[in-house]
Amino acid sequence: MPICEVTAQTLIGRRPQCQLCGSSLPHTGTLASGLGPAFGRPAAAVHHQEVAKKAQQKTATTGRQAILRIPGIATLAVAVLTVCVTPAAFAVPGLQALYLVPIALFVWILRTRTVADARGLTVRTVFGQRELPWSELKGLSLSKRGKVSAVTTAGEEVALPTVRTRHLPVLSLVSEGRVGDPTGLTEDMDTTSESPSTGQE
Q: Where are the beta strands (DSSP E) in the chain?
């Protein structure tokens, strides 16, 4: 495990700072002259042990996670659009407002996503974010175009951006079976993992 080095600012009464993660470390005692950076190593070791423990606890709580978003290659199309808009934007005063179109598309690409984990779904759009726990979901609604919406127990349909029918096995796996998989792919995986291996003598 890496050991943090404490800067010389500790000697003038300021709290030592971890040079790896940037967070403040607790004082380990009264500083005396002649003590170098190694003075803060015990506190640094304990600090990183606590950080690693919290990370493990968070992973155990959230379990699997799937982030469904627009591919980053889409930003290349935004760059091409910006180049195409430039001649028209400077042709007439006031047309610089055309740059708002690629900017809006860029923000839409970066923000729009659906995150699924063991706790539920998190739907993020340009203007907001909404969390849908699995306990509040009645099921999923599928459209003819392959789009997927979440249906709450209150009967409300919430569109899941970037989620298509091909992602249903992923949602079923992440939700630990709370969402059914009509393709049967996850059932085949469970059958394969549970079947005992046979050997030949």
A: 65-69, 113-117, 120-124, 129-133, 137-142, 147-152, 157-164
